[in-house]
Amino acid sequence: MKARVFVMLKNGVLDPQGEAVRHALGSLGFDGVEGVRQGKVIELDLAEGSTEATVTEMCEKLLANTVIESYRVEMG
Amino acid sequence: MKARVFVMLKNGVLDPQGEAVRHALGSLGFDGVEGVRQGKVIELDLAEGSTEATVTEMCEKLLANTVIESYRVEMG
């Protein structure tokens, strides 16, 4: 079974990668880009019967730095 | 309005970051992790009236390296 984890920097945490993308889009002539935030998506291929609780534990222990990042788990 | 772009390495392209995560999860005692792929999620804050076609153009020109990466756009 598949699980997806989305990890984003929390609001208020500076996102230089996102800022760089915003500037680059402006330079390429894309107007109206008001903000860009860049995060990670981690696709996990898990053994059958794995639970969302396990994936949440993975996030807490490894996948996200919960001081500055928030995460969301999507199963299936 | 918001748009989200998901950028993943294409199948067959080596993903050392994903492999590192897989090993680390194993070391932490999480069994049954058969595969991990890591990608990017880019959240765009766009002016009203922006279209999916514009975001697709952003992907082609900047956000994804279409030689090795695939992308998916989600509006709204």
TrEMBL record, chains A, B:
Record-linked Gene3D superfamilies: Phosphoribosylformylglycinamidine synthase subunit PurS
NCBIfam families with a match to the protein in the record = phosphoribosylformylglycinamidine synthase subunit PurS (TIGR00302), PRK05974.1 (NF004630)
Q: Which organism is it from?
A: Shimia sagamensis
Its function, per the record, reads: Part of the phosphoribosylformylglycinamidine synthase complex involved in the purines biosynthetic pathway. Catalyzes the ATP-dependent conversion of formylglycinamide ribonucleotide (FGAR) and glutamine to yield formylglycinamidine ribonucleotide (FGAM) and glutamate. The FGAM synthase complex is composed of three subunits. PurQ produces an ammonia molecule by converting glutamine to glutamate. PurL transfers the ammonia molecule to FGAR to form FGAM in an ATP-dependent manner.
The UniProt entry, under InterPro entries, shows: PurS (IPR003850), PurS-like_sf (IPR036604)
The pathway it acts in is:
Purine metabolism; IMP biosynthesis via de novo pathway; 5-amino-1-(5-phospho-D-ribosyl)imidazole from N(2)-formyl-N(1)-(5-phospho-D-ribosyl)glycinamide: step 1/2
* Signal sequence residues: none
Q: Which UniProt keywords apply?
A: ATP-binding, Cytoplasm, Ligase, Nucleotide-binding, Purine biosynthesis
User: Localized where?
Assistant: Cytoplasm
Among its keywords, does the record have Ligase? yes
Please give the chief subcellular localization of this protein.
Answer: cytoplasm
Assembly description: Part of the FGAM synthase complex composed of 1 PurL, 1 PurQ and 2 PurS subunits.
Q: Which reaction does it catalyse?
A: N(2)-formyl-N(1)-(5-phospho-beta-D-ribosyl)glycinamide + L-glutamine + ATP + H2O = 2-formamido-N(1)-(5-O-phospho-beta-D-ribosyl)acetamidine + L-glutamate + ADP + phosphate + H(+)
Query: Would the keyword ATP-binding turn up in this protein's UniProt record?
Result: yes
Q: What is this protein called?
A: Phosphoribosylformylglycinamidine synthase subunit PurS
Checking Pfam families in the record gives: PurS (PF02700)
